[in-house]
Amino acid sequence: MFPPSATSDAVHASPAGDHEVSLPPEVKLLQDVTPPFFPDGASGMTILVDWPPGHPGLPPHRHSGPSFGYVMEGALRFELEGEPERVIKAGGTFWEPGGDVIHYQDGNALSDAPTKFLVTMVCAPGQPMLTVVDEEELKERAHLRAPRPSAG
Question: What is the pLDDT of residues 11-26, one digit of tens each?
């Protein structure tokens, strides 16, 4: 893929880590994660999200497969089930495992500027890319949500 370079670090080129390539100095590794699964027969989808200032994002939802994202502009309020809420600023990355995990927040953390991010999702065959979680399930799984930040 890239010619060998004596000045760059080797990076695994496959999920199995069975070979490595050297990246040229112009290529920056932003995220290297091992997702828990890729559904058989899955497809990939990449979306660009452009939230206006203060946009709350989507309601709590889940994805049928893993998702990988990059914040291009602004700041994203991000929260997955079992993890504390965090803000990811422009240049930062995120991922979520998909499957049963609830994605609680993906809104614009800025009230005075837009936030733009790119997400590549793996979609299980025959399932939607995104499923909104209903109030009943949110109540049933409330014990799995990380403590909320206190206001003040």
Answer: 444 444 445 667 788 8
Place of tokens 């930040």: 149
**Angstrom distance (rounded) from CA 86 to CA 133:** 21
Does residue 78 contact residue 106 with C-beta atoms inside 8 Å?
yes
58, 40 in Cβ contact below 8 A? no
Based on the number of CB atoms within 10 Å of its own CB, is 69 exposed (0-12), middle (13-18) or buried (19 or more)? buried
Kindly tell me the burial class for residue 67, based on how many C-beta atoms sit within 10 Å of its own C-beta (0-12, 13-18, 19 or more). buried
Dump pLDDT digits (tens) for 49-78.
Answer: 999 999 999 999 999 999 999 999 999 999
Helix spans in the chain (H): 135-140
The percent of the chain in helix, strand and coil, each rounded to the nearest 5, is: 5, 35, 60
